[in-house]
Design brief:
By secondary structure, the protein is an alpha+beta fold. The chain has 21 helices and 19 strands. It has helices spanning 11-36, 38-43, 47-76, 83-96, 103-117, 160-169, 180-195, 255-262, 277-287, 293-299, 303-319, 363-375, 400-409, 435-441, 444-463, 509-513, 531-535, 539-549, 555-566, 582-590, 611-615; strands at residues 150-153, 205-209, 213-215, 218-227, 230-240, 247-254, 326-327, 336-340, 346-351, 386-394, 414-417, 420-430, 433-434, 466-467, 476-478, 484-486, 493-494, 499-500, 525-526. A hairpin with an 8-residue loop joins strand 7 and strand 8. Helix 1 (11-36) packs across helix 4. The model is unreliable at 595-617 (pLDDT under 50).
């Protein structure tokens, strides 16, 4: 039951609330500036700058929280204030958020600062926002100089082509298109193929979010086509042409599944200039209704808000379930204790206090690896992680076997607090089927697809300057869509930090017959030809692997990529099947295979820019 102060009678409370909101507003101003500058970086092809901005923006939040906490301590001795004063602070803060454009983010910022100052025992009382206090519905900036969250276009049969030209041109990119008319014709053909022979209804329109979505070397136009009761989500991928350096529309994605891949939890966060983030999240949820709001906030770079919403969802799930936390199925890790709740599609990972030989690592080193993944381009191949401190779990929901494992391997991270078991540090990741288990159970065609996907995953990581370290099947998982994703990060390294070597030729019979490594091995030395015995014991797996990814056992493959990255090259890694690229679709129609690793042939209709006009007749 909520407890409120009898009256707002402490003058410090309003000043503290104001100071707290000043800290948040500073954070979001810097966040928006970095996101807005992504457009200039894209126009100038500053790919290294784009990656640097993605990394640095993640650090902004904690920096502003630390600044605000220090200010409250210095100016108000905040940690020594009474419960009554803190309750007044929260009520004043709610009042300040009434007309704010990012109230949900500001509430989360309040929680972050408050929990940094106060003891954990206060976290469940009225000092923080356990639930949202200010609605985010129908927030819009009414000032004439500000653009709305999305633009609506109302094409007719005659104006369809001009409308799509206007959709793209309205973003006012300061770099010319190679041939925008040609690209829009491809868009019209793609729309015709997607929608088929349809009749435009009275409400036929395009709704397009007003800001571009930037990530790596791409910019994405995101919206939906509305016709009667049907809504078709879409995204246009805008890239730089490698031949001319000018802009091209590379492809058009349709439907919830393809947008889910674009906004995947295994990809880096987008840079998007948003005045009202909740409105963007609401729009994106209309395109991807199965995607939790927490993951959409994460995808937009607002990962702290994503964490907050995820935890609220988790608490709600605990209230409406009765199964118990258990040791996660699969081969146990050497450095992580992993457990899950069968009814909840995530796993919980806790760093152990000690590690068996020959593993040489530390808790701080492991945490640094996970931070590297958080700030790096994940290219659709590394699962995002949510990191929490001092999480209180209901002890009665834990199987005794799991309790025993936690007490044995992680005693320094455990605290019994009444009916709760508090874990001081935990990572949470989306649950996937471990690849080693998947390969054991899959029929031959699915097994072959998973092996090809495994090699593709490694090659995508290599293109992003990541060496996985431990490449065993158990460290990869299979998603709902059959995509293979890496999730064990304690041994990852930058590719450019590795020294790729061939195994030396034995100098004598003794060395040749030796069961031990007889040659010197440096800390960062990697011998690709030695991967085979660990990975390819199954003849069926070996056959598929060698057919598609035998180059992974060749030192030249790894060294070649390392050299290109050191020379400053930034690889293209597409969040869609390369066969979907407009240029590859033309090649398919001409009978030639598409570029890229995906060689799957797709039967496409003949290109006909007027097809959509005919369907609207």
């Amino acid at each position: 039951m909520a407890v409120f102060p009898q009256e707002l009678n402490d003058l410090r409370a309003f000043d503290i609330a104001n100071a707290m909101l000043d800290g948040f507003d500073r954070h979001y101003t810097l966040f928006r500036e970095t996101s807005a500058q992504a457009k200039k970086r894209f126009e100038s092809a500053d790919w290294h700058g784009q990656q640097r901005a993605q990394r640095e923006r993640i650090e902004f939040y904690d920096m502003r929280v630390d600044e605000s906490a220090e200010r409250l301590q210095t100016e108000f001795k905040a940690s020594s204030l009474s419960m009554n004063v803190w309750q007044q602070v929260k009520l004043h803060y709610i009042g300040l958020l009434t007309n704010h454009h990012q109230p949900e983010l500001a509430e989360t910022f309040f929680n972050s600062v408050t929990t940094k100052i106060l003891h954990r025992s206060y976290f469940h009382n009225d000092f923080i926002f356990l639930r949202p206090a200010v609605s985010t519905e129908y927030i819009e900036n009414e000032e004439p100089s500000f653009q709305p969250t999305y633009r609506a276009y109302y094409p007719t049969k005659e104006t369809m082509r001009d409308t799509w030209l206007r959709v793209v041109s309205n973003f006012q990119l300061a770099r010319d298109f190679e041939d925008l008319g040609r690209d829009v014709d491809h868009v019209l053909t793609a729309v015709s193929r997607e929608l088929g022979d349809f009749r435009p209804r009275a409400n036929f329109q395009l709704q397009v979010l007003s800001s571009l979505f930037f990530r790596n070397k791409g910019a994405y136009i995101v919206g939906k086509i509305i016709n009667g009761f049907n809504e078709t989500p879409f995204a246009l991928a805008v890239l730089h042409s490698p031949s001319s350096g000018l802009l091209i529309i590379d492809t058009m994605l349709f439907g919830e599944d393809e947008l889910q891949m674009l906004f995947s939890f295994a990809r880096a966060y987008f840079l998007v200039d948003m005045e009202i983030p909740s409105a963007y999240v609401q729009f994106l949820r209309s395109l991807m209704p199965r995607k939790p709001r927490s993951e959409i906030y994460n995808a937009l770079g607002l990962q702290k808000q994503g964490k907050n919403l995820f935890y609220r969802d988790f608490l709600a799930h605990l209230r409406h379930s009765s199964d118990k936390f258990r040791i996660a199925p699969g081969i146990k890790g050497m450095v992580m204790l992993v457990f899950d709740l069968p009814s909840f599609p995530f796993v919980f990972k806790v760093i152990k206090d000690f590690y068996p030989a020959p593993k040489e690592t530390s808790r701080e080193l492991i945490k640094s690896k996970y931070l590297l993944v958080k700030t790096h381009d994940r290219v659709g191949r590394m699962a995002d992680t949510l990191e929490y401190s001092n999480v209180a779990f209901p002890r009665a929901r834990f199987e005794e076997e799991l309790i025993a494992e936690l007490k044995h391997f992680c005693p320094s991270l455990l605290e019994e607090d009444g009916d709760d078991l508090v874990i001081r540090h935990v990572y949470i990741e989306r649950r996937m089927i471990p690849l080693n288990i998947y390969l054991q159970e899959a029929e031959p065609s699915r097994m072959a697809h998973a092996v090809v996907e495994y090699g593709n995953a490694i090659k995508d990581l290599v293109a992003a300057n990541i060496f996985p370290g431990d490449m065993l099947w158990k460290n990869f998982g299979v998603t709902r869509n059959g995509k293979v994703v890496f999730y064990d990060y304690d041994e990852i390294e930058y590719l450019t930090d590795c020294n790729f070597r061939k195994v030396p030729t034995p100098r004598n019979e003794e060395e040749e017959m030796s069961g031990e490594v007889w040659y010197s091995v440096g800390k960062h030395d990697v011998f690709p030809e030695t991967f085979g015995p660990f990975l390819l014991g199954n003849p069926s797996v070996r056959e598929v692997f060698m057919k598609h990814h035998g180059d992974l056992l060749d030192v030249a493959f790894w060294q070649g990529h390392k050299d290109r990255i050191l020379a400053g090259h930034v690889h293209d890694v597409f969040p869609y099947d390369p066969a979907k690229r407009f240029k590859n679709q033309r090649r398919l129609r001409d009978g030639a295979p598409p570029d890229g690793r995906e060689r799957r042939r797709t039967e496409l209709q003949p290109e006909n820019p007027s097809a959509l006009d005919n369907s609207l007749a």
